[in-house]
Structures are given as C-alpha cells and as structure tokens.
Amino acid sequence: MGGGRDAILEALENLTAEELKKFKLKLQSVPLPTGYGRIPRGALQPMDAMDLTDKLVSFYLESYGSELTATVLRDMGMQAMAEQLLERLRASAEPPAAVRASLPMAAAPPRGPSELHFVDRHRRALISRVTDVEGLLDALFDDKVLTEEQYQEVRAQATNPSKMRKLYSFTPAWDLTCKDLFLQALRDIQPYLVEDLEKH
Length: 200
Known about the structure:
This protein is mainly α and about 200 residues long.
C-alpha cells in the first residue's frame, strides 16, 4: 500500500505549473475503461499535485491511477517520466508469486482485528484517503448519525484528514447501525475506495 500513490505524487510534483494544467486537461479526454467515472472538471482546476494525487487514488485506486497517470504523461509527450513512474511502481510491487504462495502457510493472524467493523478496521486508511468528506458528512447528518453541533464541528476543521479524525472522535458512542450507515455512505460517494479496502 502506498507505492502507487507515492509514484503518482513524485511524477506530478515534477511537472511545471503549465504542465500540470495540461495534465488536468488531458485527464478530461483520455479514454477510461467501463466502470470508471471521470473526475469533475470543476474539482480538478484548483488542485495542486498532492490534492490531484489523492483524487486520482480515491477515484481509480493506486494500480489504475498509476497506469492512467502514465498514459496521460505519454499523451503529453513525456514518455521518460511515464516510464520512470512505472519503474518506481514495479520496484514497490508485491513479492514474487513464489514468495506469496508460501505466505498462507504461515501462522494465522489473530482474529481480533478481522472481527472489527469495516469503519474501525480501516480507520487509518479512511482518515488519509477519504476526499469527499463533505458528502460523507451530509449523508451522516441526513441519517441522524451526527447532530447539528457535531456536523459543524467536523466541517470547521481545516483539512480532510483533520475532519476525518474529528469525525472518528464521535464513533465510540455509535452502535452497529451507525457504523453501517457510515459504510453505506462511503459506498455511495467513493465506491472504488471501499472496494480496495475490502480486499485487505
């Protein structure tokens, strides 16, 4: 986890302001596989390299997000940078198949963490990777999971991770239904993120 995101971020941070602007324009026209949506143009325009990296990962996951970034860079005539991105991605890839095949023979991990609710089990990843916090808050407020005061407290935070940390400060008082509503809201606003986390 993280290798794809780091590779994307490194590539985007090496672009000039004009090149980053061109990258965003190309991103709006590059063909996408069935099932993948396009990042709204209005959301793209104000993003810097880090924000854009987070958005690419949340929309397309690390694996396809990296491939898509390389494709756009090639379309811009930046083949060397595209190859550098993919080389870095390969360097941080999983162990060879022969090594992975031996992993199931290891002692089974404790069952405790796997019995936690999705919301608790993936706390760290959700804090760092949820980008549409406002949409999540609206859904939780509409479902009466959050009070007006809690809703405003979270919105008052400066960054998405700090908003998510504030939101998580309320979860000890939630029952299973509240956490299920949290998960359903995530499925609605960032389905590919949920799909990615459910694999781990």
